[in-house]
Amino acid sequence: MLRLWSIVLTSNMVGTYIFALCNARVAIFNPHVQQAIADVSKEPPASFWVVLMRAVFAGRLLALMVWLLPGAESARMSIIVMVTYLIGLGGFNHIVAGSNKMFFQVVTGAESWSAFLTHFFFPTLLGNVVGGVSLVAFLGHAQQERTSRERRIKGRPAHSPKQKRRDNSCPAFLNYRHSLVTHLTMRAATAAVEPTTTMDFTAVETATTEPA
After folding, report:
1. CATH topology of domain 2-153
2. φ, ψ for residue 87 (rounded to 5)?
3. Whether pLDDT at 200 is above 60
């Protein structure tokens, strides 16, 4: 997971830097448009903790968007537009979206690399990570507690944490469980069609032995 995050973050940083470099050094837009971009990119100076808290809110909003998308169906685009609009409206800092204007300032000489790293990159990255991870952890814990409560209400004991992790995060165990259920169902169906046939429980016990 850490490797994936590193690759994604590095790729986004390289892409935003190239985009800002082209905007600053290549005459893609008219001069008045480039001046407007430079004016929009300028932000009033803020302390490390202010940028950090803004980034925490941005990280939580994006994590909420990702959590809502699987059940949104046809409303996915609306959710994306609303959440990103809230981030821009609130002036919250995001490590990828905010790097466009910050890199533009660095390329044009309005901002130094040290100021970019200390006043934007590090506090924004830390805030996004803290905000996103904390919201995902909270939602996952709440969902797990709700499942355990429903099992207790129905009179069924809740799974142990070790078994929950194995059931939810191990594809090999899920495939094994599916194969086991299919095997037992076929054996039961065969016994129902041929009443005189005795089921070979030795084979069933062998099939039910969990692979190492």
Report:
1. Glycerol uptake facilitator protein (1.20.1080)
2. -65, -45
3. no
pTM above 0.85, yes or no: no
pLDDT digits (tens, 9 = 90+) for 32-64: 888 888 888 887 778 899 999 999 999 999 988
**CA 92 to CA 115: how far, in whole Å?**
18
